[in-house]
Amino acid sequence: MQNKSARYYAFLSIGAAILTIALKFGAYILTGSVGFLSDALESGVNLVAAIIAVWALTYAAKPPDEGHEFGHSKAEYFSSGVEGALILVAAISIAIAAIPRLFDPQPLEQVGFGLVLSLVASAINGGLAVILFKAGKRLRSITLRADAQHLLTDVWTSVGVMLGLLLVSLTGWFILDPLIALLVAVNIIWAGFKLIRESGSALLDASIPLVEREVINKILERYNLQKVQFHAIRTRVAGTRQFVSFHVLVPGEWTVQRGHDLCEEIELAIGAALPNTNVLTHLEPLEDLKSWTDQEL
């Protein structure tokens, strides 16, 4: 699956969401548990989020055009942001279903069959989450990573619901069912908040990760012996693409050709070390005072 595109994994997520919704709603119908209902509602959010992810990944893959000269890769952040918002909507829906049961607890039926269906759905979500995390890391896709994070939250939600329903079966305390559903709502509210925060930070042109910034610094250090210096190093991430810009200060006696060749060499080195990275350099004479006063430009 190494050569599969991000859209392939998004479609895979759609298929898994449809299957797990059927399993979890089946568990709810068999048992009447609002815990299972809350779990099924969260899987419904997974389906909507996966459909949005397909759109975002399709749009983000479009090449640059006159209206979007830096490409469309930031579309992925809208997908993860919408997914975070949908998680919050699911949490509210769960609370609406659970609160009345606090005042009127209901007995549960066929808990064993419901647990089996929920366990199968959790196994599907857990396996897919691992696949999406790996693909998201490899393809540098925040959309896939957000989907994987949501699926993993769904797995822990399901585990909590199943353990709670086992306690209900053992103790006969039916009020545990709506209490578990409310705890699920609180848990996914936190997951939604984190997704929205990450998307918002990225839309504000977040810098590239520190580890990759260190890769750039090590490449630039190679040229210190050539009396070359660098400043105004700026980075930003836009979906699967990264942008790096900096000033290259060289001795004024160098020819334009020599300075240009050096910049090309550095740009190629960074591009090779960090794929999908666009590098922009600005050549300046080392001795000119103006070269040292434009770092904030």
List the helices and strands and how they pair.
Layout lengths: L5 H26 L2 H27 L14 H29 L7 H29 L2 H30 L4 H28 L6 H12 L7 E10 L2 E10 L5 H18 L3 E9 L12
Parallel strand pairs: 2-3
Antiparallel strand pairs: 1-2
Describe the structure.
This protein has two domains: 6-203, Cation efflux protein transmembrane domain (Alpha-lytic protease prodomain-like, Up-down Bundle); 210-292, 2-Layer Sandwich (Alpha-Beta Plaits). The protein is mainly alpha-helical and 297 residues long. Helices cover 67% and strands 10% of the residues. The longest helix is centred in the middle third of the chain and has 30 residues, at 142-171. The chain is elongated and about 85 Å long.
Q: How many domains is the backbone divided into?
A: 2
The poorly predicted ranges are: none
Radius of gyration over C-alpha positions, nearest whole angstrom: 25 Å
Class of the largest domain, according to the CATH hierarchy?
Mainly Alpha
- Summed up, the helix count is 8
End-to-end gap: 44 Å
Helix-and-strand structural type: mainly alpha
SSE order, one letter for each helix or strand: HHHHHHHEEHE
Strand content: 5-15%
CATH topology of the largest domain: Alpha-lytic protease prodomain-like
CATH superfamily of the largest domain: Cation efflux protein transmembrane domain
